[in-house]
Amino acid sequence: MSDRFISTKYRTDCYHCRALADQQIQATPNRADVTCENCKATRVFVPLIEDVDETGMFTRPGPWPAWSLAVPAVCRNCGVDGLHDLVVSCRHITVRCRNCRFTHLFRFSLEYMAPDKPDEQTSGIVDGHATCP
Ligand SMILES: [Zn+2]
Ligand SMILES: [Zn+2]
Questions:
Q1: How many A from CA of 33 to the centre of ligand 1?
Q2: H helices present in the chain, as ranges
Q3: How far is the CA of 72 from the centre of ligand 2 (A)?
Q4: DSSP-derived 3-state class of residue 70
Q5: What percentage of the chain reaches a pLDDT higher than 90?
Q6: Which among 113, 117, 132 has a CA at the least distance from the CA of 43?
Q7: What spacing in Å lies between the alpha carbon of 16 and ligand 1's midpoint?
Q8: pLDDT tens digits for 28-58?
Q9: Which residues lie across from 115 on neighbouring strands?
Q10: Global pTM?
Q11: DSSP state, 41?
Q12: Which residues surround ligand 1, an ion (CB under 5 A)?
């Protein structure tokens, strides 16, 4: 079974380079990240909890505009291959199965810019989100 859970794209203004570009969203049980295909700025999110969301959503969208997508994926809880609600906000990513409401919640961890050279692995890492209030 593949470790990949969600892989999709969302086209919007990049928070970093401000260009209209595809933002590649990848989520696995262990990590989720969002990468701008134009400038390669990447935000990394780490899992916080996995639980069944009874009330609606774990997190409400913050001041940063949230992206709401419906993405097909195989649920890790009920096993149904169906649509999941994927919400990407400034500090959190949630992935929720529409069938059983099982939800993965990821917390923002760090962001980095793609290094100009391969040996500059750590260039540009920042530990906060520049565009977050
Ligand atoms: Zn960008
Ligand atoms: Zn499910």
A1: 14
A2: none
A3: 11
A4: strand
A5: 57
A6: 113
A7: 5
A8: 989 999 999 999 999 999 999 888 876 555 5
A9: none
A10: 0.78
A11: -
A12: 14, 16-17, 36, 38-39, 41
C-beta separation of 84 from 72 below 8 A: yes
> Measured between alpha carbons, how far is 52 from 100 in angstroms, rounded to an integer?
8
Going from the C-alpha of 49 to that of each of 91, 94, 108, 113, 114, the distances in angstroms are 14, 10, 13, 27, 28
Instruction: Say how many Å lie between the CA of residue 25 and the centre of ligand 2.
Output: 20
Give the list of residues 6+ apart from residue 34 with CB closer than 8 angstroms, or none. 23, 24, 25, 26, 42, 43, 45, 88, 93
Q: Which two tokens stand for residue 72?
A: 């097909």
CA of 41 to the centre of ligand 2 (A): 31
User: Residue 74: enclosing H or E segment and its boundaries?
Assistant: strand 67-74
For ligand 2, the distance from its centroid to the CA atom of residue 35, given in whole angstroms, is 26
